Inverse folding.
């Protein structure tokens, strides 16, 4: 059997898919045969394979895995699924479904990287929490936490105890999104926690704006605005959202403090801001910032003259119907993900994540998985073994 590693986290949006990607990339570059699973998925997208968990789409597309997404993500939680499950008199054996899918993915593989969903307890309502899944797949668990000390250790301990209460072995910790100036302080504190609990600290990952912010393409995918003009920059990361809702003088003053790739958000009726952008772009070229997209809000799309002015400046133009507050609220709720075509993000993963994780230390703690069989599987296996023995004896007698 393959050796299994389960990437868990203390909360959602901590960076599980980023760490999973980095480990897979490293293993493949070391000539290992690797598989990926996200047994229980909540964020699915339409794809050429049907409705598939978005992290499976990333891994399958980028690494060109031959495994079917049906096995890579056997349980997809859609709207209404939880209520339907709870109301069923006879509930489906999700554990068996996960095991069957795993056995398909694990064929001829050296390692299987298994990504959890949210914190350790997610999935409990379906009787299959992350900890339950790690246990039934006999996967060693790495807990991922967001950079910090007090609250970070509190959440690590809460999740560690939960995983171990289910019989899943937590072997170590990775801390993600740590501000550079605090790395050493965080390292010392987490190492003390690890030593106390017989764990290993496998990595401290510096905070990266590139990995922590959405791309323009993800903004488009999530908000689904009307695209009025596009400049082929969907894989560029949005460093700053800037709401231009004040008068023009205050807008310019606030804007001076921004850096990086800027997405401006303002009502479609604000022509004064539109006409100010050409001069602001000249100012941007010498101040490490770039206005590369405008997202208009409002009940009506921007006027032709507004669109033409921005097209002349080669700026992406989007329009989202609704008031500015509603549009910004949707932007702030975007769950940051890496897509297979986000080359800036993937290059950043290879630049700062892969080199900050102790892979050999992780691999040394893994062992071939021993998947437990359910009672029905044991009966089925006995029947198969009996049939094979009977057939063998029949052939010998002949």
């Amino acid at each position: 059997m393959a050796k299994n590693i389960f990437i868990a986290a203390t909360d959602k949006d901590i960076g599980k898919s980023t760490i999973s990607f980095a480990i897979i990339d490293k293993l493949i570059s070391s000539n290992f045969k690797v598989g990926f699973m996200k047994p229980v998925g909540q964020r699915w997208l339409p794809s050429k394979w049907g409705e598939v968990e978005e992290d499976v789409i990333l891994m399958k597309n980028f690494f060109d895995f031959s495994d079917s997404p049906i096995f890579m993500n056997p349980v997809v939680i859609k709207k209404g699924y939880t209520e339907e499950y709870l109301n069923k008199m006879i509930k489906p054996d999700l554990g068996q479904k996960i095991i069957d899918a795993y056995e398909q993915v694990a064929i001829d593989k050296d390692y299987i990287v298994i990504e959890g969903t949210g914190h350790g307890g997610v999935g409990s309502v379906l009787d299959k929490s992350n900890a339950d899944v790690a246990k039934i797949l006999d996967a060693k668990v790495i807990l991922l936490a967001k950079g910090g000390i007090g609250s970070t250790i509190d959440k690590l301990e809460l999740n560690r105890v939960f995983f171990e209460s289910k019989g899943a072995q937590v072997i170590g910790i990775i801390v993600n999104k740590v501000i550079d100036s605090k790395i050493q302080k965080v390292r010392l504190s987490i190492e003390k926690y690890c030593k106390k609990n017989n764990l290993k600290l496998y990595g401290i990952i510096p905070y990266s704006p590139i990995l922590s912010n959405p791309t323009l393409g993800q903004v488009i995918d999530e908000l689904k605005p009307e695209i009025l003009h596009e400049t082929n920059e969907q894989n560029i990361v949005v460093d700053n959202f800037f709401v231009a809702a004040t008068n023009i003088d205050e807008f310019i003053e606030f804007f001076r403090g921004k850096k990086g790739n800027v997405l401006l958000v303002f009502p479609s009726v604000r022509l004064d801001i539109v006409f100010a952008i050409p001069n602001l772009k000249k100012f941007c070229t010498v101040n490490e910032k770039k206005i590369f997209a405008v997202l208009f809000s409002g009940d009506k799309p921007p006027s032709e003259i507004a669109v033409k002015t921005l097209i002349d400046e080669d700026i992406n133009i989007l329009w989202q119907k609704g008031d500015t507050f509603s549009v910004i609220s949707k932007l702030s709720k975007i769950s940051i993900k890496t897509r297979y075509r986000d080359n800036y993000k993937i290059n950043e993963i290879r630049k700062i994540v892969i080199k900050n994780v102790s892979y050999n230390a992780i691999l040394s703690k893994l062992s071939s998985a021993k998947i437990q069989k359910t009672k029905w599987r044991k009966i089925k296996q006995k029947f198969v073994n009996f049939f094979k023995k009977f057939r063998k004896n029949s052939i010998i007698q002949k």
